[in-house]
Amino acid sequence: MSTALSPQMLDQLDQLRDIRLPEAISWWPVAPGWWALLSLVCALVVSAVIWTWIRRRSSRFLALRELEAIDPEREEVFITQISSLLRRVARRRSAGADVLTGEAWSAFLMEGKHGMNRDTATLLAIGPYGPPANQNFEPKALRAETATWIRRNG
Questions:
Q1: Dist. CA 43–CA 40, nearest whole Å
Q2: What is the mean pLDDT of the chain?
């Protein structure tokens, strides 16, 4: 056996190409699982935006914003404005609640497990009609309890 290559073999060797490596794996197009994950994230973002938009336009949110706008420095109208706001919120909860007066209004504000305490409900029932000098209350506490009542009952 001879190790010499024939001219025909040399021609065939010249026609051979060098080893070619495969192309690098690209990140695009992504696999179907990534499409599903991307769709889920988009759906969650859209849902969050819609939920926030609806919540911000809800009557409860608007009532809480209006409650924050009431000025506690003007004691003569503070209780009247809070009582008026609560009557509008109560009208959405129960049809005839906004026309209740005195003990009936106080009882309505206290009813249920999320009702106000007796002193606050009585203050809101009789406070708007009495002289401001006779009312002894803490505006921050009244606002906080009113906000809690609106969140739970509004």
A1: 5
A2: 87
CA distance 127 to 5: 116
133: pLDDT strictly greater than 70:
no
Neighbours of 151 (CB within 10 A): 13
C-alpha angle 146/100/97, rounded to 5°?
Answer: 65
Alpha helices by DSSP H, 20-138: 32-56, 59-69, 75-93, 102-110, 118-126
**In whole angstroms, what is the distance from residue 123 CA to residue 129 CA?**
10
- Say what the pLDDT of residue 18 is: 87
- Find all residues with CB under 8 Å of 83, minimum gap 6, and list them: 124, 125, 127, 128
Whether the predicted model's global pTM rises above the 0.70 cut = no
Coil, strand, or helix at residue 79?
A: helix
